[in-house]
């Protein structure tokens, strides 16, 4: 089947098998290996990407289901003026160790902050609860997201003042 | 937005990780990200049975599928003498089953195809006829008369016994027991768990027929040891093997051993002449790679009636699965379990450990266990609470009364360990103050009046890490010493090459900081090279919390060697005697004349220049070393967990968790705290959630992350950390290692807390995992068996 998927703003047209998973399409067909493959059962969340702005587990989405849609991956997070505040937050607060869950965690965090710029610790924990991290015990991921929220708020205040 | 917080220190201190720049951009390079031109993909056909004879295998339909390049069976491997391989415990393991399968999901055939999907399709076309055999799923039945013999491949083997091993002075221990006021016994299971890092195991093998060079990218925590084993097993010359361990998505001990998949990727590449990738899925990972624990322990504790503990005695039945594949020092078939006297001052102790085969996957030593100190720490910390229950004493008071005192260090334990340093009472007191212990006990009593059940659990652990002294410790004959090489370039930038590698611990940062501390070169100017056997000195790798105690020491020593050379170069530059120079981080200056100084960068350039050096002094600025640890280091800690339990539903909520860790000198406290956080989450998972049971046919009941529950952000509280610092006296920078401390120490704190909450129901002990149904059963006084799906 021929599909056209816009990934990180760039359009890609490919012939794919109907059974091809989105995670494998991104990794193998497009070479975007920042999205990882972890469990096949939607439990671990290392394959999380955004589909039309909503976080999804790309191991349980077929590539053909993304036809005509917008996909966002970690490779698209960096902005022209530098790292996304979420990416910076993860560096600042030691929100990652092995780095395997990090792309998915950061994308979910980005979506959370887009909807709720000032989330509480509990709201952050709920937002990332569909994803597993085996290294950090989540504490520093929560702090990383808070760091991003606070710095985005400060940057906005600077612009408006 | 500029980032200004947490600047790079010139040595120890909180600095952001150098490796993060690639990870936050999705530019990590994990094994599955390796794509070589012409690469093929391999996948395993696995056994649906736990124990069955293989009658026949028909691969013809699979071979005929377009895109399939090779189908490899045990019979094919037999022709190459590769059907069996040695394990790290001097046993053998089937690479592909030939005669029969011995655990569910054992590897039976390997398909190599153009892509992963075709390989999977081909597996469906392989016809295997099995003849099912009776199964040993219950370790307690493994040695029963008439039990089916699992390892009939071993000549003359008529039972499922692997080894008997003992430690301590049994006679003395028995005598102390006979003369003690109080003796309490308890059966305690540390159930089978699996480390399950988010990256499963995999490899890309690339055999070049022209040069005879084999390059293998694999998820290994021990690249050098793997290279040697490949050379010994496959008969390939060792200098023609290059093992690359790129970025690893978590290890936790599950990536120490060699798996059939690594061997088949190599065979596949040799057979097809193309690079071959093998990457297992989660189901394969959970069911076929190294599990951990599975220790059935009977503990006995002897004490005076006022709570002075006198002796401990332990009998263990150890379930090793179908092949004895534990990764641990040779002399210790039960790992370091005999450190089970923990943090207490006892008169005597002894243990017996009996290892048995069962129809389950092989393993046993994995999951941040420090070679079974997890089991030991859990045993003693549970037994202390069992004793407290019987004596009706407060468990904190009982611990305080029996902890080793600072003046007793260095302390030789009844089973022969020499603890290097510690101040245990201080750490426990700090944890109690942080949690507000006395107030919590008042709150607990008040709540109980209202019919609410809260529990407070304590665990005090002593770790033994940094294996280890070569004369005592080797794996498959390879001594546990590690090398380091340091080279300072002419412009003063440096490269450090290490035998250990990182699975997320941040070695590129921590080890650069050690060099920075010793030489005064900015960590930003130091590259740490690791995880590539062609680029690094020999060593045994990263597990058992050994990187900082072993390679951290090697790094400090190699940097000091470089500094010694720099002193001579500086003395030639300044035309003074080396003895007249004094070192201040980053420069040598003439004693009494600080203006006469040369920076390490100036010295580096001069060392590579035409400057005349004293007779016998080589130029350049580099050094190598091999560090053979004189002893283990002994980190310790005091953990307190507070839970609320609903006995009607069995639901446990972890309200608070206080962790005071003493790992000696901390190089990068931010990284240390991160390591502790992760281990504490492990404790919640093992104590409350992670269930890996089997049914009577040997079917694995925890074979996906829908069944084997790992903790999420909602089960974990916000961790509260404290620290004391007792440097190791024999480590060059006083560091002790911390990677596994929290995984070792935390499960007992959580279990003790839940059982403390259940004390009003008369519950003295219940086995992990304390899932809602098990908590409910315990409160009802019903028996629990968590290793088998039989109640």
UniProtKB/TrEMBL annotation, chain A:
Residues 1-77 form the 2Fe-2S ferredoxin-type domain. Pfam families: Fer2 (PF00111), Fer2_2 (PF01799). InterPro entries: 2Fe-2S-bd, 2Fe-2S-bd_dom_sf, 2Fe-2S_ferredoxin-like_sf, 2Fe-2S_ferredoxin-type, Beta-grasp_dom_sf, Diverse_Oxidoreductases. Transmembrane segments: none annotated. Keywords: 2Fe-2S, Iron, Iron-sulfur, Metal-binding, Oxidoreductase. CDD domains: fer2. Pathway: Alkaloid degradation; nicotine degradation. The keyword Iron-sulfur applies. It comes from the Bacteria. One of its GO terms (molecular function) is metal ion binding. This is (2Fe-2S)-binding protein.
């Amino acid at each position: 089947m021929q599909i056209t998927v816009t990934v990180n703003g760039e359009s890609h047209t490919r012939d794919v098998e109907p059974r091809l998973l989105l995670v494998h399409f991104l990794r193998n067909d497009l070479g975007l290996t920042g999205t990882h493959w972890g469990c096949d059962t939607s439990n671990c969340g290392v394959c999380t990407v955004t589909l039309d702005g909503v976080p999804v587990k790309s191991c349980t989405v077929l590539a053909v289901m993304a036809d005509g849609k917008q996909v966002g991956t970690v490779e698209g997070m960096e902005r022209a003026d530098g790292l996304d505040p979420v990416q910076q937050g993860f560096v600042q607060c030691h929100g990652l160790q092995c780095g395997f869950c990090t792309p998915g965690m950061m994308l979910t965090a980005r979506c959370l902050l887009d909807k709720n710029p000032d989330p509480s610790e509990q709201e952050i924990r709920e937002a990332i609860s569909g994803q597993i991290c085996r290294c950090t015990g989540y504490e520093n991921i929560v702090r990383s997201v808070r760091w991003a929220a606070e710095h985005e708020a400060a940057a906005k205040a600077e612009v408006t003042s | 937005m500029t980032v200004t917080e947490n600047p790079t220190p010139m040595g120890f201190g909180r600095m952001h990780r150098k490796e993060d720049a690639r990870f936050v951009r999705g530019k990590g390079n994990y094994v599955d990200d390796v794509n070589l031109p012409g690469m093929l993909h391999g996948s395993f056909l696995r056994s649906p049975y736990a124990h069955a004879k293989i009658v026949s295998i028909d691969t013809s339909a699979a071979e005929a599928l377009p895109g399939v390049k090779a189908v490899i069976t045990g019979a094919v491997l037999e022709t190459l003498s590769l059907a069996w391989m040695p394990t790290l415990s001097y046993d053998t393991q089937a690479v592909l089953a030939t005669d029969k399968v011995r655990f569910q999901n054992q590897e039976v055939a390997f398909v190599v195809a153009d892509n992963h999907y075709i390989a999977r399709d081909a597996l469906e076309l392989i016809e295997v006829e099995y003849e099912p055999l009776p199964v040993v799923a219950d370790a307690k039945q493994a040695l029963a008369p008439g039990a089916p013999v699992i390892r009939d491949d071993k000549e003359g083997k008529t039972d499922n016994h692997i080894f008997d091993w003992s430690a301590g002075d049994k006679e003395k221990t028995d005598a102390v027991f006979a003369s003690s006021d109080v003796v309490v016994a308890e059966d305690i299971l540390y159930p089978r768990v699996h480390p399950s890092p988010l990256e499963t195991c995999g490899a890309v093998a690339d055999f070049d027929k022209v040069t005879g060079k084999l390059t293998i990218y694999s998820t290994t925590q021990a690249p050098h040891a793997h290279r040697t084993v490949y050379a010994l097993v496959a008969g390939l010359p060792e200098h023609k093997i290059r093992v690359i361990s790129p970025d690893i998505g978590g290890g936790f001990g599950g990536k120490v051993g060699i798996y059939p998949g690594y061997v088949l990727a190599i065979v596949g590449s040799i057979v097809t002449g193309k690079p071959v990738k093998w990457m297992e899925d989660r189901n394969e990972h959970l069911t076929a790679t190294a599990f951990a624990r599975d220790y059935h322990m009977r503990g006995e504790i002897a004490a005076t009636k006022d709570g002075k503990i006198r002796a401990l005695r332990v009998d263990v039945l150890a379930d090793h699965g179908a092949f004895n594949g534990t990764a641990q020092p040779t002399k210790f078939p039960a790992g370091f379990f005999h450190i089970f006297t923990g943090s207490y001052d006892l008169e005597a102790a002894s243990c017996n450990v009996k290892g048995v085969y069962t129809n389950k996957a092989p393993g046993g030593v994995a999951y941040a266990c420090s070679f079974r100190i997890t089991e030991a720490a859990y045993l003693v910390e549970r037994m202390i609470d069992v004793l407290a229950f019987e004596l009706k004493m407060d468990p904190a008071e009982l611990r305080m009364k029996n902890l080793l005192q600072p003046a007793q260090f260095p302390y030789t334990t009844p089973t022969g360990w020499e603890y290097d340093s510690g101040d245990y009472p201080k750490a426990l007191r700090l944890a109690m103050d942080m949690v507000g212990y006395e107030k919590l006990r008042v709150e607990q009593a008040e709540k109980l009046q209202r019919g609410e059940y809260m529990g407070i659990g304590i665990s005090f652990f002593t770790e033994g890490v940094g294996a280890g002294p070569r004369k005592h410790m080797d794996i498959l004959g390879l001594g546990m010493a590690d090398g380091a090489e340091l080279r300072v370039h002419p412009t003063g930038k440096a490269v450090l090459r290490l035998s250990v590698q990182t699975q997320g611990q941040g070695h590129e940062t921590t080890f650069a900081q050690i060099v920075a501390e010793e030489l005064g070169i900015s960590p930003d100017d130091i590259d740490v090279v690791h995880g590539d056997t062609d680029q690094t000195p020999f060593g045994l790798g990263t597990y058992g919390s050994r990187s900082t105690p072993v390679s951290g020491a090697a790094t400090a020593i190699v940097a000091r060697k470089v500094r010694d050379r720099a002193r001579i170069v500086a003395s030639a530059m300044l035309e003074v005697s080396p003895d007249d120079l004094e070192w201040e981080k980053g420069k040598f200056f003439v004693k009494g004349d600080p203006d006469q100084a040369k920076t390490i960068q100036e010295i580096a350039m001069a060392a590579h220049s035409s400057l005349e050096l004293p007779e016998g002094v080589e130029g350049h600025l580099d050094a190598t070393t091999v560090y053979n640890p004189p002893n283990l280091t002994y980190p310790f800690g005091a953990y307190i967990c507070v839970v609320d339990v609903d006995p009607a539903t069995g639901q446990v909520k972890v309200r608070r968790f206080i962790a005071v860790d003493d790992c000696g000198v901390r190089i990068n406290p931010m990284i240390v705290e991160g390591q502790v956080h992760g281990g504490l989450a492990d404790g919640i998972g093992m104590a409350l959630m992670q269930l890996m049971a089997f049914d009577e046919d040997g079917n694995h009941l925890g074979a996906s992350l829908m069944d084997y529950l790992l903790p999420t952000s909602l089960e974990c509280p916000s961790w509260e950390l404290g620290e004391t610092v007792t440097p190791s006296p024999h480590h060059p920078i006083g560091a002790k290692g911390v990677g596994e401390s929290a995984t070792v120490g935390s499960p007992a704190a959580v279990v003790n807390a839940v059982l403390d909450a259940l004390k009003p129901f008369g519950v003295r002990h219940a086995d992990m995992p304390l899932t809602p149904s098990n908590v409910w059963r315990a409160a009802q006084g019903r028996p629990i068996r968590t290793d088998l799906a039989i109640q």
